[in-house]
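Quick check before the chapter quiz. The format below is the same one you will see on the exam, so make sure you can read both the input and the output lines.
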Amino acid sequence: MITQNIETVIIGGGQAGLATSYWLKEHGREHVVLERAGHPGHVWRQRWDSFTLVTPNWMFRLPGFDITGADPDGFMPREAIIGAFERYVAVNGLPVAYGVEVTAVAPLAGHPGYLVQTQDMAITAQNVVIATGLFQRARIPAFAAGLPATVEQLHSEQYRNPAALPPGGVLVVGSGQSGCQIAEELQKSGRRVFLSIGGCGRAPRRYRGKDIFAWLEAIGFLDRPPGALPSPAARFAANPHVSGAGGGHDLNLHRFARDGITLLGRLRGAAAGHITLAADLHASLAKADQFETQLLDRIDGYISRNGVDAPFEARPVWRDGFDQPQLTELDLAAVGIGAVVWAAGYSFDFDLVKLPVTDADGFPVQQRGVTNFPGLYFVGLPWLHTQKSGLLAGVGEDAAYIAAHIAEQAAA
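Here is the expected output.
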């Protein structure tokens, strides 16, 4: 096996890895980005045809690259996002090696540094930056095997458009941003839709004259540190549902119910053509309502305290979802379901790092991405430093911190 020596290896060619590469290049530090796919920003390619950013274009903040263009308040479609990542690599001349899968990262024996093993070669490095993100493995429960073979199953990353699904109704599992947007698209296409929801929150697209993300920035919501969380498990909560499609609009489960989508509680199992459900539909709806109420109260308080000129807005109160029964079982054939779209998120796994570097939840133990193992870093995960650490709007700040740390250690 060929062995090379490179000062810093970045694993992952998404937004986190590319932003770190940009800053390391600014510091003049030798490095390479290893990306398993054949192109940068692969996770964005695994989105449906009509996908757009949920955040406004002005929040696309890769360092040294302004792509907001003439429509800063718009929502970039998938193809434009993909093109932006490709241009980012080309314009900045970032050293990305594609089609390289890292299989292990282990400490070197006898002296500082790490051995990075891939399918074709080994690399020794003083520093390794793990930038693989949280979206590593599509989450589909084991009981999905109990669904009939006649029902097509796919994860949200495989969904492309309504026409690509078999005839019949569709069960969408998960009420985060992906699940709600896919359910809405399917319903508008004329499909009968069933949506299994959880406790994900809701936010309006615009409020009191501004996009909701403008308010989130103003009130410091995205700058909250991990210590602001009620528990470590809250790091993995789904983002509030809102949409950038069609110029941006609200998503509301009660409106879904009014439009004909059948809302269901959490899935608990599947067997003999039936699914079993928790009787928690109304409780989950109440959580989504409460999240929006508390968020808008926080924004109202900020406006009042700071004398911000923002017209008062009374939000409509929707209750339609509470009129739907809390089903505990559903016969898939009886209601004509021909496909299930799993939109319950992803799981993550950092087992490629052969060191005790994660906590009981499998999340890296670190301080703003810096671990207790010299030269080993993480970037691009939510709540590394703040909530926005994993977002396009915040990853560049964390990447700059990691790159500066590497440069300082090299100069010491």
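If your answer matched, good. The two ends are 33 Å apart (CA to CA).
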